[in-house]
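Provenance and format

Records in this collection were gathered into a single text stream. Each protein contributes a sequence line and a token line. The two records reproduced below are adjacent in the stream.
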Amino acid sequence: ETEYQPKKGKQTKHDEVTDDGNHVSISASIHSMLNESPGADAPKTRRSKRGKSPVVPRAEPEPKPKKRKQSNSSQKELAPPQDEEAQDDVETLRVKCTKQPFHVDVSSQKSFYDEIDIKPPIDSYDDRFSRNKNDNLQEWRVRLGDMVCIEVEQDQKAGLVTFPFAVTWSPAEIVSIYRAHSNKTECLELREKLQNGDQHLNDVDDNSFDDVMVEVRWFYRKHEIPGAGGKSSKSSQSSEELEELFETDQIDSCPAECLLSPIKLYEASRPEESLPSVVSGMPCIYYHCRRYWSIHRKSFIPSGLLSNRIERGRMHSKYKAALSKLASTSSNNGNKLLEGYSWKEGFQSAIQKLSLAEAAADVQVHGMELRCRERERRHIGSFLRKAIRGLEQPLSNTQDDDSVDEGPMNTKSSIFICGPPGTGKTASVRSIINELQEEQASGKLPEFNFIALNGMEMRSPFDSYVKFWEALSGTMKERLSAGAAAAKLEDFFGDGEKDNSDEDRSKKPITVLMLDEIDYLVTKKQTILYNFFDWPLRATSARLIVIGISNTINLPERLSLKLQSRLGGERCHFKSYTVDETVAILKTRLDGDASQVFDEDAIKFASRKTGNLSGDIRKAFHMCKVAAQNALDDYASGRRRIVEGSHPKVKISDVQRGSRDMYTSIIHKAISCSSSYEALVLIAIGALKKAKVGKDIVSLDVQEMLTKIESIANGSGEERYLSARLSLGDLLGILSRLGDAGILTLTTPKQSNHPWPLIQTSLEPYEINSSYRNTSHSKLAEKHLAEQRLF
């Protein structure tokens, strides 16, 4: 049950549109009633129709929705008295699924739909609501992303106006639509028909269901947000302006029969088009929406365009994996160099494919093959499948899965993955998790929740407790202090009830936790890593599987003995890519563009250059991308001639120039001559960008910059950095000077309520680190920007 207690405030919603001149519009009626209602200032409590939601995501049966009775006032007056049993007989179902589901999740026993048909609930409309008699009351088609009014349970003492309905209501967005099935057999049959393309899936006599649920994202009105509906805003609002509605990050689920009528949103407070108060015989209410209220942060946060509202809603959904089936499965369209496909499009396609964000999405989300890591993926996949099913693992520490049935057995729930940076550790784990989620949806694996944490993104190692509990608490996103979150996690995964039977444990929720960059979670007493890897061994109330990833190969040997016994039991080592493997990966990634855009010798040179440096495949991608961009600019501007009858290609000279630009540019020399404060700022930028691996364009906020600078300065132990108590004005001055030198770029945010510029730079963390070598700042840069951290 999701509740909130807003401060007092009055609603100021109105518009002056009329239907036939005999009565004012719905919005104006609501506005006048709010001014007369003595209870408009009273606090109210919003409750979802589904009942209480658990604090943590547990597998619980979905509640039955409330059925409505089809009746009207005249029938009530003329009909003779009936007992309760006779009244129940007239209950009918209002919700129909007219299309086949786009996804069936066998493990959670749910089928997901993109639209449903609903009979308008005329019995829930207010008697004062006038509807044109000529209006055809047709079935109302509700689709994903639609804005609707939803019947909610509220404190009747609040005295809030419910017009044009006879029940209390709140605005919300439809995030997902699903049915909860009673058994897996029904889901398996439905999934099989869906996979076989059975067009008669829903061609049945009765396609009305009483178990259709909708996941909604609540939108708040002014009187529901403290300070948003003050006197100044009320007096300044014109009668022609629509009332403002606020997006939120509050997600809930309720029966589809709670839907009342549609809502229309506008970015402008005074839309130019006419706004009829009745649409298809249903009341329609209009708002304008430009701001986003976070119920977790208790503050307004930047919001994008209204056209991206649906994508923002899906970010908070519990069913992201199901909703992702609506999108295209892959961005790779194969060989495009057919007739009519120009050389410029070929270069642009290759540059896009070589971007780190695009490559990560294709491997981790779209299921593209990850070359030269088949052995490691088999090892990790076999371990995770057995751990999720609750099977036992062999005691022998080997990556060869052929000897699984030999030797003594021991239950394992954690694995340690190590290897140099850029060798595919994180990408391999995420791609395997994507495969396991597909198997879970088909019923081959039990239901599990996947949570990913990165130690480099934590301001303090103790923040890992906070982030883990926030992710574990589901849509509630409960944010506690580090101590309180650790206590909650101990209660959730700790000893709890002493019941270790396999039957009882199989009914508990399974959580798969990926801890990336665990080097940064090492503290003096090593309690944080110990707790994370000890909980899987002691978990009785809920099962936990931990995947630890580190760049330090011998990390377990550097830790205490009690932590070694929990961390080093199961290992998987990723080696650096060889030259041949790098060539194969680049060709596979570029597909048909490899031979059409790049010379064979250019790809081999980039592979050898990468192998001599560190074997980091990300550097090979970046080197080839820079070379392709330089070549495209040269050919497009006419600085290089195109030989008649041939396609322009990237030569070895382009890769060489790209390699020099990465390490010996004028900008790097300027960085090496920076002052102490400028070095502190640049190292902070590199550390923040390093924490956001996989993104080509990283925009940094001034506030997070100040926090990171203070953290780095306090940890340095050197007086020249400790004395850097930079104010906001000092930081903006330094950023302006670095921007004038071309080292970084200051951009204006699109959000009007964001006062400070955003910081962007094309420099990679390792480039900043290499620029400070043989300087007085090399120690600090090595500490925060080095590719491999050793203790």
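Adjacent record:
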Amino acid sequence: AGPPVRFGPGAPPPLRAVSRGGGGAYGVFYDSMARAALDFGCELNNYHGLFASYQAECGDLDYYVLLGPRVRSVTARFSWLTGETLLPPRWSLGYSGSTMAFTDAPDAQRQLEAFLAECAARQVPLSSFQLSSGYSSSAAGRRHVFTWNSGKVPDPDGLAAAYAAAGVRLAANIKPCLLVDHPEYAACAAAALFVGASGAASAAAAGAPPSSGAVFWPSTPSAAAYSPERSMFWDADGSHLDFTNPAAAAWWQDRVAAALLRRGIVGTWNDNNEYAIEDEHALCHGFGRRVPLRLVRPLHALLMCQASWRAQRAHAPGERPWLISRSGMPGMQRYVQTWSGDNYTEWKTLRYNLWMGLGLGLSGCFNTGHDVGGFAGPPPPAEMLVRWVQSGVFHPRFTIHSWNAGGPPTSAWLHPGVAALVLDAIRFRYALIPYLYSLLRSARDECVPPLRPTWFDFEEDDRCWRPSDDFMCGPALLVANVLDAGERRRDVYLPQNGGRGWWDWHGGAWHPGGETLTLDAPLDRIPLLAAAGCCVPLADPEARSALDGGISRTVRVFPLPPDPAFDGVAAEACWVEDDGVSDAAQGAGTQLSVSVTARDGSLHVAAAAVWPESAWSCPLQTINVVLPPGEKRPVQSIAPAADLRLELVVGKRPHP
């Protein structure tokens, strides 16, 4: 029991999924953009017992009922309803650096270039970097979107070129509010590009009731007809751009291109877009028909993302855009990845963020992550940083980002005593990229979240419905996070999976499902298990690029147990290798498969490939098939397909 969950500014319309065990599952999507409260069955009625309820502050009550029969079916239907997940460029799965400290510093460009050099010197792989908004601060310290502080960053083009030369892409933080002293504020106000204040709006629409759909914004704005809303935003009063006005969206796209993309910035970080406007009765253009802000508040974040996406598409046609957004609503997955917002550096945040991320996945936001190490608060202690990175490497968005009060920015080398452990975890992330990339393809094509609670895959197992910090990373990996200080042993429940069982990733031993194991969790690793019958493709262990990943793939194969029921059943991995950046490769690429079949007490290995006709040539030369040390059955046959064109090697050795 507990109070209702209330959804305020920036919160999306809620999706409520319910499982009835053997009776199936259903979901209810409340399609309202107003502030709302949802009671998850905590209210008691004397006649009907506990019941759930939903209440929106204003507007119509529209909702969709999504039938299962399983929760995964509800998630898939909701994702289909609200839009296909954007397949990002593969390099976005690499480590993305960020901190407010660099761009807030008076010598921002020097510090940013020093960080790039430090990563190279320490051999820390880095694929992208997210510039916080300090690069756009005025002489008075106020954030002015689409401007550059020439004192901090004297050569933005040179900065972007230096990062590009190192194979690192830059994204820049942008905000949808112009402070009143912004150099373009007056021009935007004169063009009526901001959300309108309620008083002026009422005067402009005198005699026209809100339901009439009267055109609100005149083609030639005047002081009597329009004035922008003004509310506190960061450092001063400002006005929010009205993305329901096509002219405002066009202005935004032009500035994204001119101020960022043409300077070599690759991506946009759409931030502070909750539209927490104090004027509850502010009015929006509504594409020519006025509408109160409170009815469409989160729509602005979605349209902001769409405008940024369109600018990036126009600038680099044929390439997959990379965008990040802090807020949005159902449908945002068509344009951006998101994260759980500004978190605080403490142990409980690791657990809170994990559960938030799993909830986002069930709600159709598949490309998500968290600020590893904590955004606000003190720098993370050494043990906390290691555990946070070890957990973060499984999330699609893997970013170490911080604004540490009175301390150094969080980095992979923050604590010299554990820097090697952090680096090992980051390198493991790069090894996982072929597998993670295949999960994002499945998210797009099959509407399946890459990260999900264990019950998502094993609904029939009642034990999986108990609260747990364990989660599935795709169908193959059971991740047992270590989220408490000093924990060096971890109880892990292995879901029942039809007798297939589970393999210990580190030790290579097989265990049956339905059991609870107590596994070692030394600081250099967390417990990780693989489902029998699955295979995991990995990049070269020393790969420093998320885009190519080397010339070989290691496929960790986890065979089915020696049970007559599994005789002739294959453990198989299918994945796609492509250029990782182009639109053309989204539906194409080299399709590779590896299978290991148990038959008559021995194993039979096969591999195949489908080579498309394209300008891109797959650089792979070798596939290394690796069996667990605990697998004792002999490999009787190795059968590469005639068109494989790759060397197929089978053996047993530790994970790279």
